[in-house]
Design brief:
Elements: H1 2-24, H2 47-55, E1 84-87, E2 94-98, H3 104-114, E3 118-119, E4 129-131, E5 136-139, E6 144-148, E7 157-159, H4 176-180, H5 211-235, H6 243-264
Antiparallel strand pairs: 1-2, 3-7, 4-5, 5-6, 6-7
Helix pairs in contact: 5-6
Bound molecules: 2-acetamido-2-deoxy-beta-D-glucopyranose (NAG) (2 copies).
Length: 267
């Protein structure tokens, strides 16, 4: 009897859990970006791009350099003398606050160099953003945001402008339902965020995601290089395999890994 009832309640728990998981498989909880995205800060953003990239996509991005397009001019619309809070385009939760721990000019230069708004760990509202093991980033509202592409050993969050172009939801907005799926105590809503006292916990994790992939790629590149070196050695009978030459080989290898990193930075 006892066994049957506990099996029964376990079954109920399981189906509740899978229902929750099924609901959370749907990006943006099946909602769409708020309409104000299309005139974010007075810019003209393409609403259909926001809907596609943030709510129906895990891989692709708005085009590189979109933030600097004449109709967008992202940095021309920010006040360089203050920190700006950036909100999820669908659920209005705060996601980033910038510039923090660096100048406005650093924030601008880094973002323009890479072609997407780029944030650093101090600038992320860590409670509201998920970084997956493969570097993909989404908000707790399951809006796709972009990717974590660590630069210089520090996380760099390369974010689609169209997905961080929201504002706090008004009371009557149907998107408020999204927040009901969440544990309120684990997120920070727009009203709760105190920008003066807020400290991100993202620095604790910085540089730790995507490392596995980087190591696997490095090992593979080094391995391939050694195979090529061995092949060339065997092809040239006169060539001696001395310790020195292998040293030279490995320093060349590390140079080429850095070049690979640079390429990876392009979203
Ligand atoms: C924000 O969170 C606080 C604390 O959980 C809650 O009391 C408040 O109603 C929330 N505000 C909104 C707009 O959801
Ligand atoms: C925000 O935090 C600062 C510093 O802790 C505090 O002085 C201020 O009263 C807080 N503001 C609000 C609105 O709670």
């Amino acid at each position: 009897m006892k066994t049957t009832s506990s099996v029964f309640s376990a079954a109920i728990l399981l189906s509740a859990a899978s229902a929750a998981r099924a609901a959370s498989d749907n990006q943006c909880f099946d909602f769409t970006p708020m309409s104000s995205v299309s005139n974010y800060l007075g810019a003209t953003l393409d609403y259909s791009v926001a809907d596609r990239i943030c709510c129906h996509n895990h891989k692709f991005a708005e085009y590189r350099g979109y933030l600097a397009a004449p109709e967008v001019d992202f940095f021309g619309r920010l006040d360089p003398s203050v920190e700006t809070v950036f909100y999820d385009s669908v659920c209005g939760l705060p996601l980033f606050i910038a510039p923090r721990g660096r100048t406005f000019d650093d924030f601008k230069k880094e973002s323009l160099k890479h072609g997407w708004p780029s944030f650093r760990p101090e600038e992320m509202i860590s409670e509201n953003v998920i970084i997956h093991d493969d570097g993909r980033m989404e908000s707790v509202c399951l809006s796709h945001l972009g990717h974590n592409l660590p630069t210089g050993g520090v996380d760099r969050y390369c974010i689609d402008l169209v997905c961080m172009a929201g504002e706090p939801l008004s009371a009557g907005d149907e998107r408020n339902q999204i927040l009901q799926y969440m544990h309120q105590e684990q997120i920070i809503n727009a009203t709760e965020l105190n920008t003066t006292s807020y400290t991100s916990s993202a620095e604790q994790y910085s540089g730790k995601t995507s490392n596995a992939t980087a190591i696997i790629i490095s090992v593979a590149v080094v391995g391939l290089f050694l195979v090529v070196v061995a092949f060339v050695c065997c092809e040239k009978p006169g060539w001696k395999r001395k310790g020195d030459e292998i040293q030279v080989g490995s320093s060349e290898t590390s140079t080429s890994i850095h070049e690979d990193d640079e390429e990876n930075e392009i979203y």
